[in-house]
Amino acid sequence: MTATLPIVDTNSSQTVVKAACPHDCPDTCAMLVTVEDGKALGVRGDPDHPFTAGALCVKVNNFVDTVYAPDRVLYPLRRTGPKGSGQFERITWDQAITEIATRFKGVISEYGAEAILPVSYLGTQGILNGLNAGDPLFNRMGATVGERTYCDSGCCTAYAMTVGATAGVDPESLVHSKFILIWACNMISTNLHLWKFVAEAQRRGAKVVVVDPVRTRTAKHADWHLPIRPGTDGALALAMIHVIINEGLTDEAYVRDYTVGYDELAERVQQYTPEFAAAETGLDAEDIRTLAREYAAAEPSLIRIGVAIERHAGGGQTVRALASLPALVGAWRHVGGGILQLPLWAFPVNWPAFLGAEMIQPGTRVLNQFLLGRHLNGEVPLDPPIKALMVYNSNPVVVCPEQDKMIEGLQREDLFTVVSEHFLTDTADYADIVLPATSQLEQQDIMFSWGHLYVTLNQPAIEPLGEAIPNTELFRRLGQAMGYTEDYFTRTDDDMIANSFDWSAPAMAGITVESLKETGWARLNLPDPDSYAPHAEGNFPTPSGKTEFVASIAAGGNFVLPLFRQGSNDHQPGQPVDPLPHYIGPRESSWNAGRGLNLISPKAHSYLNSSYGDQPAQRRIAGEPTVILHPNDAADRKIADGDEVRVFNERGSFVVLAKISDEVAPGVALAHVGGWRKLSKALATVSSVNPFQFADLGNAPTFSDTLVEVEVI
What we know:
The chain is an alpha/beta fold. It has 23 helices and 27 strands. The strands form 7 sheets. A 6-stranded mixed sheet has the order 5-4-17-16-15-6, covered by helices on one side. A hairpin with an 8-residue loop joins strand 4 and strand 5. Helix 8 runs antiparallel to helix 11 and helix 11 crosses helix 12.
């Protein structure tokens, strides 16, 4: 399936350029950019794209306003005031590159290259300018390797342990599902374009069930909402397995032919009765039985898990249990049956061409970016200490935990900090050098997707504004200034596009760079979504070729997939992990502690992490930052709707307005992530109270294991 070029009025000076939304979002929308006289007039979704279907979300509908924002960084800047003041002067690119290279060389000479730490994530998701754009430079340098497990690392680890690195269910085939279980995913806010397939299935008679502590936009459109306590999802999943096995609801033939470890699993789940799960989750035991029975009986049944599923102490084992369910009931036999996690596994991205992993010297230090505040402020002793920091595609002041410690570290006068950005973010305010990055409308890139099965080419629609440059050019200039001569530092963007995929892979048959320049996007060469059931006869990419209830790779201990620690397959030190799914409750919970509230911090509807947290239109949609409390919890604390309140624990505090609503379950508080620190009350956001501990698998974060108290100021 390919796109058709839009019709352009030949009597007009306007042109339409095929582009792609750059964001860390499963939808990876195909965009059409209208350009006149070199200026972008607007963006819209490509109506021919089966997933985008002509619609964009509130985050990017007005993308040109962001591109042309008056406060955008368009020239290199050098700090003139105290760190954090946001006071800078304009300098030339030659001055900026020379100063950065000189300072980096000085740090290497005095402390060694491991005193330099790169920090990046998915502020842009393109293969060229995204997550790994700077890896070759820092690997050649010998800098500390930054482990990036902010999101989905625990989920991916657990999923791969159970069913392998499979794309699983084709998202478009959800129209054929008869029972759709949406778990920890506010789809309408964070995966909007998948919802139309769910809604179509619902129109065809499917039952849609949402498991979430909050009655979200998605839950309000479901047939049944189960308001689970944060961090107890594993108890519910295991209790479902208990009911399915004990009531004889399994697909015996599928289990026999295409799974490993059924007897062990059956024995393990005997302890996880619906009554046990009810006590943990706050749900009714009979509702748990009904959920299990209806899920098992429907043909086909589908589970969609969101990234929030991993964000508590037992998140990995929760995913292991959920990934086991489709094989137990034979859901994989059917089109639209199974589990949908990350379709990205279907894309044959040529990652080695972008990592420079072969340049990493054995024994090079690895630091997890989630703990950046502790690494910078000296709480975690390091030898050598971090003396230079380079941040791109990330805003760690907002997205990392322990915000106060982060600020303490960034304020160090002996820390040389470089930030490449579109705006003076909370992190950029602490930089010594700020560099102007191009927006997606000004750069070339090519996109995989973690939410659908289409490759998308982003073609630049306008010339870069000011002196902004793409990440590819930034790291070419820095590499050459450091004296590096490898091909990584001389190749062009066109060279990189040509190396972005294994174009000979079966999934890429019929797709070329030239064809993408004409069409903008193309579906991977996979069966039609109306007929695609990839594991109807097993063929899982696990060591056994089957769903592994007993995970064979668990003997290696907890590990981080190469997707999150570039260039490394090394298992982390430690004992083997339990190969069977099991329940690990939250570390911090109000119902166990008998005090406080469990704070969750999902993405805001109009922000994407901290992107757009400064933009006027998106801020108007988001409204004044709030913490949402259940009426009972508010009454216990004598808090009224609209009160200014302090949310706090031993790690920090932030100030917002109280919103009283039964949308959250009793004992739960909700404050969205994404608002900027310098635009908030008391110069603090929800990140100030989040914990630094990892979950059970993949060094996943534990944002949902956060116990707080709330009081009126």
